[in-house]
Every structure is written in structure tokens, then in C-alpha cells.
Design goal:
It comes from Lophiostoma macrostomum CBS 122681. This protein is α+β, with helices and mostly antiparallel strands and about 200 residues long. Helices cover about 35% and strands about 10% of the residues. The radius of gyration is 17 Å and the shape is globular. The structure holds 2-acetamido-2-deoxy-beta-D-glucopyranose (NAG) (2 copies).
């Protein structure tokens, strides 16, 4: 188990060393069909969504593929390609597989931490809490995420998540935010996920 991981990382470093390329570094970030990766990301969403009275999400491989295509473009500055997406990046990149998995969970936790700033009495959108409101958006039912290890950039480790239906709907004034972002009034999740 250990050896292939080390080989993959060594290969990754070779790719990084080429300064003209800003491509995905092979073999470092978890793949979109990696069950460990999927469960880290799903668990982190599931936990908070339960507490905020939102429905459980279904993993959507097509959304994950779309997120993969986007995040693997490895633009110099991370950019959002669509509404209903959350993106985080960090640098330097994690050193090995387990750290990538931990980073995925911590990034989603970080999105939820914006909850502290959310004005429940004046619910609307703001960059200060846009990740949080998407994470717990009640009408969202599907999720797909991807990680990338981008080479020659300041924040090379990236997690990008796509949501359906997209959250942060502003079309109807405050109505959508009020209906979709509930405070932490529901019961804490049990230890076990329901599947
Ligand atoms: C997180 O996702 C939401 C939903 O699409 C988006 O509106 C928001 O811009 C994202 N947050 C940030 C800070 O980029
Ligand atoms: C809520 O979700 C449903 C089904 O995913 C979707 O058809 C509908 O457009 C969503 N409503 C809003 C206001 O986003």
C-alpha cells in the first residue's frame, strides 16, 4: 500500500519541476471516484445539513466530472465556473494521500464556519457566507466534487464542488434564503450515516 503512494508522489514532483506547465500534477490528489474521497466530502456535508434541517445529498458522478474538468484547468487564480459551486484552495499542497483526504474534509468544515457571520434576521447573499449557505441549502439534492493538484501556482491544492439545484438563489428577494437556510435547530446526526 505504501509503495505506490510514494511512487505517485515522486512522479508528481517531477511534473512540478517543469516551470512552464501549470497542469494538474499526476497521481497526487484523490480521484473523483475514490470512495474515501467521496465519503469525506459527503460526510462533511451530511453532518451540517442534518443539523440545519436540509435533505441528504446524493453523489452525482456527472457533477463530479464537471467539477473535475473545471478545477483541472488549473487557472492561476481559482475561479468559479458556475453558480451552485464552492471552491477552496490551499498551499502548499498536502504531502500524501491521507493529508489530501483530511484537507477535503477541512475545506468543507471551513465553508460551514462562515455560519458565524450569517445574519439569520436579514437573510441574503454575501461573499462572507456564500459557501456556508450553499453547503446547507435545503433545496439542493445533488453534489459532485473534485480535487486537483495544480503545479506552478500559489495555492496548488484545490477542492471544487458543484451543487444541484444550485443554492444562493436571489431571484425572489430574501424569500429563497429564508426558506433554504435554516438555523441549527434540527437534531444532531446519529453516529452512523443512513446508507
Ligand atoms: C460558494 O458557492 C456559492 C453558490 O454558488 C456562490 O454563490 C459563492 O460565490 C461561493 N462562495 C464564494 C465565497 O465564492
Ligand atoms: C428546487 O429543486 C428542484 C428540484 O431539484 C428544482 O426543480 C427547482 O428549480 C428548485 N427551486 C429553486 C427555487 O431553486
Amino acid at each position: 500500500m505504501k509503495l505506490p503512494t510514494l511512487l505517485a508522489l515522486a512522479l508528481g514532483h517531477l511534473v512540478v519541476a517543469s516551470p512552464t506547465k501549470r497542469n494538474q500534477v499526476d497521481g497526487a490528489a484523490p480521484k473523483i471516484d475514490d470512495p474515501n474521497f467521496i465519503s469525506r466530502v459527503m460526510d462533511a456535508h451530511w453532518y451540517w445539513r442534518r443539523i440545519h434541517c436540509a435533505q441528504d445529498l446524493t453523489w452525482d458522478p456527472a457533477l463530479a466530472q464537471a467539477a473535475f474538468d473545471s478545477v483541472n484547468a488549473c487557472t492561476e487564480h481559482p475561479q468559479h465556473d458556475r453558480g451552485g459551486s464552492n471552491l477552496s484552495s490551499m498551499g502548499p499542497a498536502p504531502g500524501h494521500y491521507d493529508e489530501w483526504l483530511r484537507a477535503a474534509r477541512e475545506m468543507v468544515q471551513g465553508w460551514h464556519e462562515e455560519e458565524l457571520k450569517y445574519p439569520y434576521d436579514n437573510p441574503t447573499w454575501d461573499t462572507a457566507w456564500g459557501h456556508f449557505t450553499q453547503v446547507v441549502w435545503r433545496n439542493t439534492s445533488h453534489l459532485g466534487c473534485a480535487m486537483a493538484h495544480c503545479g506552478d501556482v500559489e495555492f496548488p491544492a484545490r477542492l471544487y464542488c458543484f451543487y444541484e439545484s444550485p443554492g444562493n438563489v436571489l431571484s425572489d428577494g430574501m424569500t429563497e434564503f429564508k426558506a433554504n437556510v435554516w438555523p441549527m435547530v434540527c437534531k444532531d446526526p446519529d453516529q452512523k450515516r443512513p446508507h
